[in-house]
């Protein structure tokens, strides 16, 4: 079952990825077809490379950023194409130029995503065209065709800009809601009520949670990009922001719900809840899917009638629980826990109403008319600052500089090898090196397995297709179909991308050399050589181990959790707080925790000799993630509070917990050793004593028939504190004594 789930996840594809694959395949196919008709297959290939690499330089998001990255890529592709054509026939010139191009291109990553993407495709084009030397006249022709290919790609990618300027942010927000839909359905459908199976269920949704965090950050980033390019205020901006904020609220409620389920896992009163949760999850996922379409397309209705019916069932369930649970001390705590869970479910349904209202207001407001292209950079380019940024990284202390040297040396060596040995299609060796090499060895190793594994399997398929298909029309159709599938998976699953890309390339070569199935063997052979060379370079040339980065990232995640904890506890202590401030703290903590988890996964892919203290690192990471979940529950409960109640010892508890976490941040990078938690544990005992006194007082009131008293709301307020206190204290103490 796990294998089936993993395979389904690997081949999962959304509408936007599919459309992107079709667009890239179509952009590339037309120049090839025109070149074939004009008996100029090489120029057709240049047009294809210009269009393909301009598309691959597309950073996504706002149209302004996309136009900038694709425009820069088009210009530099033409320039390096011209130079590579002239230098390709002279090995003593080709090898140094390859090093220079790869080194300078890799250094461009200091300028962010645009610099990284543009430089990557420029290096790819240079090393490919380097294998096709020609005269000055041909170099000029290639320059022009590469420019035309890039312009063609920009036209097909950006034509909606003047018609629907908000399209990028709608797509990003819709993808955020799409990941939320999957997350909610996974949480509710995989939950069962005992601690062992629940822990398994939680591990199954961790991957979905990280995808939601990524989509959330992307939606916010694209919104800021689009908003910064607009002139003046626009009501659409407010509606889009509200749609994003409502999604944030739903995500926070879901995270609190996961921990609430854990708290009620063994209560016999919740026997009907798993089936009920699955029903709620299914209905919520359906409504969110309708919201995705409404956000993405700007039209469509969302049906909330089933959710309203579910809310009625929740109310009835709540009433039944109140009657079923006795008023003993132990069962009173069960009542509080289970009713809190039901309250979270009701909050989810209420938030869904807010989401649908916000989406409908957005769609009623936005009836976009053509506005023309507005290209306003977010800030003036500071040339002096850009030069200083580059020069500051010209040192071996810079990770970017070391990686640029590594890429330059490895690709130049690969070019020298295939030129000296005169290997057919030898450019696949340096191309593989460039694709596989990453700044840290763990990521390099992972990409090597993905690239080589996908290429070997795809090479078998490509060889068979090239051997049995001789119809030119059928070859073009297959090239287009394989291109659509391959490029659709380019950013989703690299192994699948490499698998479909190989037969795509084999048939592409077969268009000019029919029946040449042996090219699939050459591609596999050259890819394996390039993969081995990349691994050697990653291991030998100034290797960067992820294990060395993990302590710093863990310290950042602990610090982010501490700030979130401080903000939430301040609210419980009666201090003024802003909901948006807590949301920001939560989002920052969630992002740092996701980064720490991703970094740890890369550590596991490194050689065993580099995985020292990996068990301690995993324990610290796990406790820190659980700490975030506990804080999230407390934050989610704040919205239900009506007035301030004091709890003896809570202020000291907050202060001591913050001190322990702050001390832990300081020592995590220098080596683990126990931290004194005596004062913290004393503060925990004081809070527990206060809560015990509050419970006893409330039970006495219930026995006397006193229902509406100040202690009733106080008990409601501090029940989540009581529920999470032992767990939160355990997490903090365990982190402090990680080597005990």
From TrEMBL:
Annotated transmembrane regions: 32-55, 67-84, 118-137, 143-161, 404-421, 457-488, 494-512, 524-545
Position of the signal peptide: none
Any Gene Ontology CC annotation: plasma membrane
Domain Integral membrane bound transporter stretches: 413-536
Location of this chain's protein in the cell: Cell membrane
Membrane topology: Multi-pass membrane protein
Superkingdom of origin organism: Bacteria
Coiled coil: 647-697
This protein's UniProt keywords: Cell membrane, Coiled coil, Membrane, Transmembrane, Transmembrane helix
Domain Integral membrane protein YccS N-terminal: 76-255
InterPro entries noted in UniProt: Memb_transporter_dom, YccS_N
Similarity annotation: Belongs to the YccS/YhfK family.
Identification of the protein by name: Integral membrane protein YccS N-terminal domain-containing protein
Organism in which the protein naturally occurs: Reticulibacter mediterranei
């Amino acid at each position: 079952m796990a294998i089936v789930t993993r395979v389904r996840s690997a081949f999962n594809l959304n509408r936007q990825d599919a459309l992107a694959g079709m667009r890239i395949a179509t952009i590339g196919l037309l120049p090839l077809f025109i070149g074939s008709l004009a008996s100029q297959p090489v120029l057709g290939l240049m047009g294809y490379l210009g269009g393909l690499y301009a598309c691959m330089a597309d950073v996504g998001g706002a149209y302004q950023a996309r136009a900038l990255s694709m425009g820069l890529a088009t210009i530099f592709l033409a320039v390096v194409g011209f130079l590579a054509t002239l230098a390709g026939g002279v090995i003593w010139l080709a090898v140094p130029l390859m090093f220079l191009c790869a080194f300078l291109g890799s250094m461009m990553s200091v300028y962010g995503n645009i610099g990284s993407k543009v430089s990557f495709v420029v290096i790819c084009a240079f090393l490919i065209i380097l294998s096709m030397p020609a005269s000055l006249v041909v170099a000029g022709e290639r320059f022009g065709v590469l420019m035309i290919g890039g312009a063609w790609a920009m036209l097909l990618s950006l034509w909606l800009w003047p018609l629907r300027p908000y399209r990028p942010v709608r797509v990003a927000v819709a993808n955020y809601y799409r990941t939320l839909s999957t997350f909610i359905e996974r949480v509710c459908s995989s939950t069962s009520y005992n601690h062992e199976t629940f822990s398994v269920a939680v591990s199954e949704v961790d991957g979905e949670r990280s995808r939601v965090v990524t989509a959330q950050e992307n939606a916010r980033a694209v919104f800021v990009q689009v908003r910064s390019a607009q002139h003046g205020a626009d009501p659409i901006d407010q509606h889009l922001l509200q749609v994003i904020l409502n999604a944030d609220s739903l995500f926070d409620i879901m995270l609190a719900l996961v921990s609430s389920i854990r708290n009620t896992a063994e209560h016999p009163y919740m026997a009907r809840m798993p089936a009920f949760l699955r029903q709620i999850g299914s209905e919520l996922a359906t409504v969110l899917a309708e919201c995705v379409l409404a956000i993405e397309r700007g039209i469509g209705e969302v049906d909330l009638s089933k959710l309203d019916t579910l809310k009625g069932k929740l109310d009835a369930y709540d009433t039944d629980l109140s009657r079923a649970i006795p008023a003993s001390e132990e069962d009173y705590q069960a009542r509080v826990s289970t009713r809190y869970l039901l309250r979270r479910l009701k909050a989810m349904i209420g938030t869904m109403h807010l989401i649908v209202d916000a989406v409908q207001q957005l769609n009623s407001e936005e009836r976009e008319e053509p506005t023309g292209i507005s290209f306003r950079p977010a800030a003036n380019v500071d040339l002096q600052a850009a030069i200083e940024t580059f020069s500051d990284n010209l040192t071996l202390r810079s990770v970017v500089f070391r990686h640029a040297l590594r890429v330059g040396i490895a690709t130049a060596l690969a070019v020298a090898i295939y030129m000296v040995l005169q290997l057919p299609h030898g450019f696949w060796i340096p191309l593989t090196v460039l694709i596989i090499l990453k700044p840290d060895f763990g990521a390099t190793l992972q990409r090597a397995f993905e690239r080589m594994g996908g290429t070997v399997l795809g090479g078998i398929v490509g060889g068979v297709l090239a051997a049995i298909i001789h119809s030119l029309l059928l070859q073009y159709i297959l090239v287009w179909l394989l291109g659509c599938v391959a490029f659709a998976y380019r950013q989703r699953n690299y192994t699948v991308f490499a698998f479909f890309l190989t037969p795509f390339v084999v048939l592409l070569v077969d268009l000019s050399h029919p029946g040449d199935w042996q090219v699939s063997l050459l591609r596999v052979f050259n890819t394996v050589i390039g993969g081995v060379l990349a691994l050697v370079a990653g291991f030998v040339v100034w290797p960067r181990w992820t294990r060395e980065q993990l302590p710093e990232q863990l310290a950042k995640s602990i610090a982010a959790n501490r700030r979130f904890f401080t903000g939430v506890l301040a609210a419980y202590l009666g201090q003024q707080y802003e909901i948006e401030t807590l949301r920001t703290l939560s989002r920052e903590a969630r992002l740092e925790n996701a980064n720490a988890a991703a970094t740890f996964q890369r550590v596991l892919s490194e050689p065993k000799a580099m995985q020292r203290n990996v068990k301690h690192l995993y324990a610290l990471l796990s406790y820190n993630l659980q700490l975030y979940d506990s804080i999230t529950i407390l934050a989610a409960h704040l919205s239900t509070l009506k007035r301030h109640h004091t709890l003896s010892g809570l202020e000291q508890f907050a202060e001591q917990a913050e001190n322990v976490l702050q001390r832990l941040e300081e020592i995590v990078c220098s080596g683990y050793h126990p931290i004194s938690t005596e004062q913290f544990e004393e503060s925990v005992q004081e809070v527990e004593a206060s809560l015990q006194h509050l419970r006893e007082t409330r039970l006495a009131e219930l026995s006397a028939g006193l229902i509406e008293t100040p202690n009733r709301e106080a008990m409601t307020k501090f029940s989540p504190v009581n529920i999470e206190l032992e767990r939160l204290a355990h997490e903090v103490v365990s982190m402090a004594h990680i080597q005990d």
